[in-house]
């Protein structure tokens, strides 16, 4: 069973307008409301891949109830900790032929006690048959920057594989600790920010994957959007190239990639198959309008067109 963790989920509202005028009344043409947050994107893609998955994290208020009901609609088993503070809305305004303006609420501020209660909740989930865990997205306000160290520690103690997909201090604190996740998936921008250097050439990117900050992390997937990815799988570097596809909405492709990795690792596939599965899920997500969605019927078609080159 795969467990997905989303500490700061949201109800994602999409509003479409022909044009959006500041300081005036704007009437919405089309509205969508979905269960959002990176970990929930991972969850939906895992469900499409027919993987056994349980979703957890923290939810509260009516928006928390909405997220639970959305997950039920697609038969996702969820075991979120309920808190007495409301889950947030995040609004994406689509306007003026291709512009997207985002309005992101910060979400609830958790107390130290709520953080500790979640860790106990996680321990009880991990006492079940969990073998792979994905940890995605930012931390809610109020929790210490090293909160994910405590999360990864519990996952490692259980002997499950941990895929950590976060950024900034939440990631730095884990990488600087003695507690290492099995897999991380930074994109190029996140890796550059992490190492505080520009990584324009492939040689720079390869050296970055060998940086001492990543000692102890088995697998690093450096995702590069439509340019594919560079992967350090233990001591081997692979370059991945993708088929040309028509991208409709690439947002959430990184989350789909994490889902593909978790799915294939759970199935104990070899490195080539894991990398290709991860990339296929990312590409398929880019081809869909909805964030965190894939058309499973096209999986083999894309998978066969992904090429992997061993660089060292
Ligand atoms: P997000 O934060 O939106 O989830 P990300 O920045 O973490 O995304 P990306 O590097 O954009 O992740 O994409 C992850 C993978 O998805 C890529 O390695 C690639 O396989 C696939 N992908 C992303 N964008 C495209 C695209 N435009 N066309 C084809 N495949 C794509």
From TrEMBL:
<dbReference type="GO" id="GO:0009024">
    <property type="term" value="F:tagatose-6-phosphate kinase activity"/>
</dbReference>
<dbReference type="InterPro" id="IPR029056">
    <property type="entry name" value="Ribokinase-like"/>
</dbReference>
<comment type="pathway">
    <text>Carbohydrate metabolism; D-tagatose 6-phosphate degradation; D-glyceraldehyde 3-phosphate and glycerone phosphate from D-tagatose 6-phosphate: step 1/2.</text>
</comment>
<protein>
    <recommendedName>
        <fullName>Tagatose-6-phosphate kinase</fullName>
        <ecNumber>2.7.1.144</ecNumber>
    </recommendedName>
</protein>
<dbReference type="InterPro" id="IPR011611">
    <property type="entry name" value="PfkB_dom"/>
</dbReference>
<keyword id="KW-0418">Kinase</keyword>
<keyword id="KW-0808">Transferase</keyword>
<dbReference type="GO" id="GO:0005829">
    <property type="term" value="C:cytosol"/>
</dbReference>
<dbReference type="GO" id="GO:0016052">
    <property type="term" value="P:carbohydrate catabolic process"/>
</dbReference>
<dbReference type="InterPro" id="IPR002173">
    <property type="entry name" value="Carboh/pur_kinase_PfkB_CS"/>
</dbReference>
<dbReference type="GO" id="GO:2001059">
    <property type="term" value="P:D-tagatose 6-phosphate catabolic process"/>
</dbReference>
<comment type="similarity">
    <text>Belongs to the carbohydrate kinase PfkB family. LacC subfamily.</text>
</comment>
<keyword id="KW-0067">ATP-binding</keyword>
<dbReference type="GO" id="GO:0005988">
    <property type="term" value="P:lactose metabolic process"/>
</dbReference>
<dbReference type="GO" id="GO:0005524">
    <property type="term" value="F:ATP binding"/>
</dbReference>
<dbReference type="InterPro" id="IPR017583">
    <property type="entry name" value="Tagatose/fructose_Pkinase"/>
</dbReference>
<keyword id="KW-0423">Lactose metabolism</keyword>
<comment type="similarity">
    <text>Belongs to the carbohydrate kinase pfkB family.</text>
</comment>
<dbReference type="GO" id="GO:0008443">
    <property type="term" value="F:phosphofructokinase activity"/>
</dbReference>
<dbReference type="GO" id="GO:0044281">
    <property type="term" value="P:small molecule metabolic process"/>
</dbReference>
<keyword id="KW-0547">Nucleotide-binding</keyword>
<dbReference type="Pfam" id="PF00294">
    <property type="entry name" value="PfkB"/>
</dbReference>
<feature type="domain" description="Carbohydrate kinase PfkB">
    <location>
        <begin position="22"/>
        <end position="292"/>
    </location>
</feature>
């Amino acid at each position: 069973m795969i467990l997905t963790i989303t500490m700061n989920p949201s109800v994602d509202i999409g509003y479409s307008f022909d044009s959006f005028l500041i300081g005036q009344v704007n009437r919405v043409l089309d509205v969508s409301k979905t269960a959002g947050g990176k970990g929930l994107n991972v969850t939906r893609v895992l469900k499409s891949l027919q993987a056994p998955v349980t979703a957890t994290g923290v939810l509260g208020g009516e928006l928390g109830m909405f997220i639970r009901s959305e997950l039920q609609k697609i038969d996702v088993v969820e075991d979120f900790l309920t808190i007495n503070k409301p889950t947030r809305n995040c609004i994406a305004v689509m306007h003026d032929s291709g512009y997207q303006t985002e309005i992101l609420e910060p979400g609830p501020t958790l107390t130290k006690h709520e953080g500790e209660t979640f860790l106990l909740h996680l321990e009880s989930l991990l006492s079940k048959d969990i073998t792979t865990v994905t940890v995605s997205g930012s931390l809610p306000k109020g929790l210490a920057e090293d909160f994910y160290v405590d999360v990864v520690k519990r996952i490692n103690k259980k002997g499950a594989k941990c895929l950590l997909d976060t950024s900034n201090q939440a990631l730095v604190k884990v990488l600087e600790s003695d507690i290492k996740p099995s897999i991380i998936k930074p994109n190029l921008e996140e890796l550059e920010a992490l190492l505080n250097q520009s990584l324009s050439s492939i040689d720079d990117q390869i050296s970055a994957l060998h940086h001492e900050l990543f000692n102890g992390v088995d697998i690093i997937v450096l995702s590069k959007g439509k340019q594919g990815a560079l992967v350090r799988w233990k001591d081997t570097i692979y370059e991945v190239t993708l088929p040309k596809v028509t991208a409709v909405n690439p947002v959430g492709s990184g989350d789909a990639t994490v889902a593909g990795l978790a799915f294939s690792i759970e199935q104990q596939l070899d490195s080539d198959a894991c990398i290709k599965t991860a990339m296929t899920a990312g590409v398929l997500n880019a081809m869909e309008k909805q964030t965190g969605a894939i058309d499973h019927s096209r999986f083999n078609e894309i998978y066969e067109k992904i090429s992997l080159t061993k660089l060292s």
